Amino acid sequence: MEPRTELFPPIPLEEWEGTKQTLHRFLQIIGKVRLEHSVRRNHWWHVPYHLTGQGITTRPMGLEDGNPIFTVDFDFVRHRVVANTLEGAEGSFPLTGHTVGTFYSEVMDLLGGLGVKPSINHPYPFDLPDADRPFEQDNEHHTYVPQHANRYWRVLSQVAMVLERFAADYSGKVSPVHHFWHTFDIAMTRFHDMHISQPRDAGSVIREAYSRDVVSFGFWFGDDTIPEPTFYSYTAPEPEGLTNAPLPPGARWMASGHGHLAVLPYNTAREAANPRAAVLDFYQAAYTAGANLLGWNQAALACPYGVTDPFAVPSRR
User: Fold this and answer.
1) Could you give the dihedral angle defined by the CA atoms of residues 235, 240, 244 and 245, in that order, rounded to the nearest 10 degrees?
2) 237 preceded by a cis bond (ω within 30 of 0)
3) Whole-structure pTM over 0.90, yes or no?
4) Residue 171, pLDDT score
5) What helix, strand, coil percent values describe the chain, rounded to 5?
6) What is the pLDDT of residue 120?
7) In angstroms, what CA-CA distances link 178 with 29, 67, 195, 236?
8) pLDDT score of 267
9) What are the residue ranges in the chain where pLDDT is below 70?
10) Residue 19's CB: how many other CB atoms inside 10 A?
11) Cα atoms in the Cβ-side hemisphere of radius 13 Å centred on 295
């Protein structure tokens, strides 16, 4: 466990790339268990992880599929995978000392020992360079540095609280703040009520995720496209002229896929006089840009500091 750190401690991608690559695949394995054994929710809200006081959790799943109700948690303080059932059964194993292949086997054995019949429809990585290699055959990824994993969770937790604060100002449909295992980012999305007709060839992931118009906000730790941790936002469907909208100093628009992202480097935010305010200002600018061009009634959707009660005095915490 690291000593208490400042808001947004440094987490350069090159420093923990090995742990990140291994951990990403660990998360995908248990994330795919979650995908198979949880009740489906709109926009894939049933799939991501949520933050806990020691790591991340799948939340309860099972029951409707004939399994006991069970959860699987990553503990990044003690560095263990912990599984529990509603009946009180518990099992765990260390995160250290595993290849992806041995981790996969341990997960299957752990859940089986608790009376769960675990299922993964496609036990391969999703949208990663080794997507054609089964998890159980991956002996390449085997790095797990506890200090790096703990730092990752601390940063996730700090960003989550900033996203929670930003989510509070919107009274429309808004997603939970959740950690997606396929892209290894943490995000929150504001939805409007325009139905978007996605073509069949867009794929099931896109059709479900973007069946409404949205402005989404998040953070990821860096990848081949942007090799540094970055806050981001995007609008979908992307309206014409979006990239002409102003962003705060240090932020910019960048091409991504068939559209654009608003991006603010993590290091730019952490070096600001008020890092939390810098991120909130960035998210607000990106939201204003997208919502204006999509024609959202921003005044009607606002609930400053999470308050819609006209007789309440909002707290500015």
Assistant:
1) -40
2) yes
3) yes
4) 95
5) 35, 20, 45
6) 95
7) 17, 25, 23, 19
8) 97
9) 1-5, 196, 210-211, 315-317
10) 20
11) 4
